[in-house]
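Re: export button greyed out
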Amino acid sequence: MIEIKGCVGCSLCMLVCKFNAIRVFGEAKIDEEKCVKCMRCVDYCPVDAVNIA
Ligand code: SF4
Ligand code: SF4
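Workaround output, generated via the alternate export path:
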C-alpha cells in the first residue's frame, strides 16, 4: 500500500528515488510497478507525506 498525504510538491522524493518511480506534478505520484519499497523517499520527505506498507 502506498499513500501520499500532505505532499507539498517539493520534488525531493523524485530526485532521491533510484528506481525512477516518482513523478511530481503538484503532488507526488508513485508508480507501484517500479517502486521496490526501498523507503528512500519516505526518509527524505520533509513533511512525512509518504506512507509505504
Ligand atoms: S520506496 Fe524507493 S523505489 Fe519506491 S518510490 Fe520510494 S524511493 Fe522509489
Ligand atoms: S518529498 Fe514529500 S513533500 Fe516533497 S514531493 Fe515528495 S512526497 Fe511531496
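Strands lie at 2-4, 22-25, 27-30, 50-52. The button fix ships in the next patch.
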